[in-house]
Amino acid sequence: MQSWPTISIPPLGISLPPLKLETTSGKFGERGEIFTSYVCGITPYDATHLGHAATYLSFDLIHRFQVLRGQTLKFVENITDIDDPLFERANRDGQDWKELSTNQIDLFKQDMTALRVLPPQSYVAVTEIIDQVMDAISIIGEKGFTYIVGVDTYFDLSSFIKDLPLSYDKALSIFSERGGDPKREGKRDPLDPLLWQSNKPGEPGWDSPMGFGRPGWHIECSVIALSYLLGTNYLANSSLPNPLIDLQGGGSDLIFPHHFMSASLAKALTGNEFATSYVHTGMIGLDGEKMSKSKGNLVFVSKLLSQGIDPMLIRYALLNGNYSQDRMWTNAILQESEIFIGRVRSALARNEVAPTSQTVVQMVNAISDNLNTVLAFNHLEAWVDQTEAGIEGGSVGEISRLLDSLLGLAL
Fold first, then answer.
1. Residues 285, 335: one domain?
2. Fewest Cβ atoms nearer than 10 Å: which of 66, 245, 351, 393?
3. What is the pLDDT of residues 362-383, one digit of tens each?
4. Which of these, 26, 250, 262, 252, lies nearest to 157 by C-alpha position?
5. 40 and 221 in contact (C-beta within 8 Å)?
6. Could you tell me if 285 and 360 lie in one domain?
7. What's the rounded Cα separation, in Å, for the pair 18 and 402?
8. Is residue 276 part of a domain?
9. Are residues 36 and 174 in the same domain?
């Protein structure tokens, strides 16, 4: 699928230190000149709310930093364009699921463009890789990791259960809440995930060795990541890297079961660990409450943009916080952002500004230290204060280029 337009990143003219990130698991680092990143994309039925945006902006900072470090970014993102929530929403609204999916994908691309998020080199819908998923399931089956319940195919998780990132009881609870079926009779273990499910009336299906149906959620991401980051013939490659990719990312709600399951499936396929590092972002709430579909309190980027809100205000507001922690969104945050960005723009419009070299280094160092955007913006505010006080000796272009390249703020 066509991604959104690419973005140029002007070089800063300085050497950047290695990026340090706090990971959910693994250790973040560079293994060569190519940096491979897989970030889980949307299920296209309610794009793009602020939780989505905060996640993709956080990984955008990582990607920008690695590019400025001289790395070649190989970034893949998926679209889960066949999934229960999509079909449920389409049925509820009396809309064709393909039409709903296409509309939401287009909307998501527009939002990412407005927010200046670097696009993936490969933006892949599940419907584009069904054949590869079938092949992967067949190979996993040949290795003894699958079994049948009724007419559905399951993954035998027993070889990987020891690596659970949480207690078994907690895993059962979360698995039930996030698309799993722990109570289905006939499963070897309640946590075993579905790999291929038989067709349901009104839903899409494909002929396969497992019967007419469609893939389960977790295998889709495993196959997309491996096929597009390692090459479509990855299973024939006898010298695959271990771990297979550098970064697996997404929101914290994906830690379990999705990222655990997709990593287990990748290991079952190849024998290698999936990712060197797993990085997850916090959730965005609204006015002291969890933001969710069930509460009906999702805030959408497109709605804010339609109200005339500057996308750079949204970008700044979402970046000005700890990316890995749950945070709240309020109208006051947007108002405060408008005031601050206005001050920055006024400073950048001056002929003479405060010294900039030290501010650039300070902001780079702050971002290098686990994406400390709050500290980086504190340094920027100190520079604005000095400029407003009439201190001179700096370069407007130096600060403007830094904001553009490192933080994605075109001011």
1. no
2. 351
3. 999 999 999 999 999 999 999 9
4. 262
5. yes
6. no
7. 17
8. yes
9. yes
